[in-house]
Amino acid sequence: MILPIVAYGHPVLRKVCDDITPDYPNLKELIANMWETMYGSNGVGLAAPQVNRPIRLFVVDSLQIIEGLEEDEKKDYPDDKGVKAVFINAHIVATDGDEWDYNEGCLSIPKVREDVSRPESLTIRYVDEHFQPQERTFNGITARVIFHEYDHIDGKLFIDHLKPLKRRMLKGKLENITKGKISVDYKMVFPK
């Protein structure tokens, strides 16, 4: 089932989310719905707060980005094979490498894209959908997508990484999103 995506301005997007246990109600169904919602809105990642659940859960499919790169672009990310994975109770252990800019967008902040600077790689500890402990290092575009989704479960948004002047320039667009004055091809829930 496709779930509505929470729009910028909704308080759940600013909440530091809670860890969950394997007995979280309807978890398997929620994960399936998040995948369907993400693909239905042409996303590459989706965090639980974006579907109004304040829990430390997100899904990522960076395989579709890596597979879509031209051959000459793939050389820019030689170690990035992409990943399709569920991240539960994730906590970043370490970051590494130089910061680099990449143009990011967000399903909760539609029609706004900006260059964001993030480190090249991250090591993250989490449990998968079977609650099996994982600790992996990701780099390149995959790391970027994970950083972005991880921010969501910590109550942050990609626009928080922008310089104050750039954020002020976006103020009108952000207010329009909050007021529901935007048209998208997926279901959204706007703040009241």
From TrEMBL:
InterPro entries: Peptide_deformylase, Peptide_deformylase_sf. Keywords: Hydrolase, Iron, Metal-binding, Protein biosynthesis. Its cofactor is Fe(2+). The active site is at residue 149. NCBIfam families: pept_deformyl, PRK00150.1-3. Binds 1 Fe(2+) ion. The keyword Protein biosynthesis applies. The keyword Protein biosynthesis applies. It comes from the Bacteria. Its EC number is 3.5.1.88. This is Peptide deformylase. The gene is def. It comes from Chitinophaga defluvii. Belongs to the polypeptide deformylase family. Removes the formyl group from the N-terminal Met of newly synthesized proteins. Requires at least a dipeptide for an efficient rate of reaction. N-terminal L-methionine is a prerequisite for activity but the enzyme has broad specificity at other positions. Fe cation binds at residues 106, 148, 152. GO terms for molecular function: peptide deformylase activity. The lineage of its organism: Bacteria, Pseudomonadati, Bacteroidota, Chitinophagia, Chitinophagales. Pfam families: Pep_deformylase (PF01327). It catalyses: N-terminal N-formyl-L-methionyl-[peptide] + H2O = N-terminal L-methionyl-[peptide] + formate.
